[in-house]
Each structure stands twice: as structure tokens, then as C-alpha cells.
Automatic annotation (TrEMBL):
The chain crosses the membrane at residues 45-67. The keyword Transmembrane applies. It is a single-pass membrane protein. This is Late embryogenesis abundant protein LEA-2 subgroup domain-containing protein. Keywords: Membrane, Transmembrane, Transmembrane helix. InterPro entries: LEA_2, NDR1-like. It comes from the Eukaryota. Residues 101-203 form the Late embryogenesis abundant protein LEA-2 subgroup domain. The keyword Membrane applies. One of its GO terms (cellular component) is plasmodesma. Signal peptide: none annotated.
Amino acid sequence: MPESNLNGAYYGPSIPPPSKSYHRHGRGSSCNPCSCLFGCLCNCIFQIIFTILIVLGVIALVLWLVLRPNKVKFYVTDATLTQFDLSTANNTLYYDLALNMTIRNPNKRIGIYYDSIEARGMYKGQRFASHNLEPFYQGHKTTSSLHPVLKGQSLVLLGDREKSNYNNEKNSGVYDIEMKLYMRIRLKIGWIKTHKIKPKIECDIKVPLESNGRSSANFEETRCHLDW
């Protein structure tokens, strides 16, 4: 091509710009420091708690194997009822009830401190009397006796159904009375004494009324229910 036809510089065909390459980081290739720290902390806490639970479980198992604890047994062995009169005029109950109770501790290595004992007499769901008994200590594999006496008068509000039941019991000469023992006790294991525990003992007894020194039926020994 003649040079006269060239009016300016000749650049030739345009060269495309170089393509940019992008590197996408994978989601699992890096870790947020805060997230990693939180995850490690949670994992450590979980392992510590799990270890503590295992240790406590092993200790509890060893103590159970060594002590072999058994439930304390409560019985009402005898009951004497010489008065149980309900006045419909003023809803007052006049009562005179004496009980003989036994507590059997069958454990070889556990003693019991009875710090407080309150005996409550209940009739048709209402308390009519209470008696505080003397505190005492009960040793291993021993039987102790309690002698609560409930005597006096108390206001008792009964509905028509309860009054009808009372009249039926009066005719039969045998009354359904509930005795409850509210306690605060401590267990003694070797030289260790536990914190105070508050068990509740419930005794559903059928007590015959004595008249002139005689009762219409014999009292049957009753085992009580222990609620921890």
C-alpha cells in the first residue's frame, strides 16, 4: 500500500482486554473467629457437665451399694377412742383418742434425728386436733414408739354427705379417722448429717368406739404411707 494513502498511525485490529479471574472462597475453607470460639466453648461446657453427671452417678451408685437404704416403716399398732361426738347444733366435735405407733428403722448404717413431730387428727378431710411429740434420735435397726393423745373439742364443718357418713359410722361404732405425722428429720451416716428433710406420714385407721370399757370391734394394726 503506498505511503501517500496513510493519513495517520495504523493501529491494527483492537486487542480485547484481558479477562479477570475471580476466586470464590469455599464456605468451609475459613472460620469466623467468634463462631469458632463459641463452638469450642459450648463443646467444653457440654463435656464438663457430662463428666460431672457421670461422676455423681458413680458416687450415688457406690453410696447405694454401701448403705443399701431401706424405707422407714410406720405403724399404728393400737388406738383407743372413748369419745367422738359431733354436735349438729354448733358443729363441734368432741373427741378423746389415744394412739400407739411404732417406727421401724431397718437400715444398718443410717440413723435418724427426729427434730420435730406433729401428729394431726383428720376427719373427712378436716383437721380436728394436733399434738406435738418430743424429738428423739433413732439408731440403726431399731424400733421406736410414739404415743400421741388427741383430746378436746374443735369446730368441724361437714357437708350433708359427710354428716350422713358420720351417722352411719356412729351406728356401726367404728370411725374412719386419718392420722398424719408432719416431721423434720436429719439422716446420720457415719459422722455426716444431712440437711433437714420433711417427710409426711399418712395413716388411714378404722377406730372402734369404746363404751364402758368395751369396744364394738377390735382395732387392726395399720401400716402408714410414707411420702418424702
